[in-house]
Amino acid sequence: MATYKQLSDKGDGTILGQSASDLVGFHGATPSDQYATVSNVSGSLGDTNSALSSVIALLKEKGLMAT
């Protein structure tokens, strides 16, 4: 039977990192600081693709999406 460690089982929740410069990583990824904002999409396909690429890069950097 597997044993799991709970980060929090009571209270108002759990925070990982106290500031934007604290490093966090998931699934064995190298911890990194908070990702910069993704610029607003103005409606053009190029801007949409750029914003989507930034979101995918963020997910991969944090280990939340396979590289």
List keywords for this structure.
about 25% helix, mainly alpha, elongated, single chain, about 0% strand, about 70 residues
Mean pLDDT comes to 85
Number of discrete domains: 1
Q: Note the run of SSEs as H and E.
A: H
> Percentage of helical residues?
25-40%
Overall shape: it is: elongated
What is the SS-derived class?
A: mainly alpha
Q: How many E-type strands?
A: 0
Which spans have pLDDT < 50 for at least 5 consecutive residues?
Answer: none
Outline the biggest β-sheet.
none
Total helix count? 1
Report the β-strand fraction as a percent range.
Answer: under 5%
The CA-CA distance between the termini, in Å, is 31 Å
Cα gyration radius (Å):
16 Å
Can you give a write-up of this model?
The radius of gyration is 16 Å and the shape is elongated. It has 67 residues and is mainly alpha-helical. The two termini are 31 Å apart. It has one helix and no strands. Helix content is 27%, strand content 0%. The protein has one domain.
Task: Indicate the topology.
Elements: H1 45-62
In short:
This protein has 67 residues and is mainly α. The protein has one helix and no strands. It has one domain (21-67).
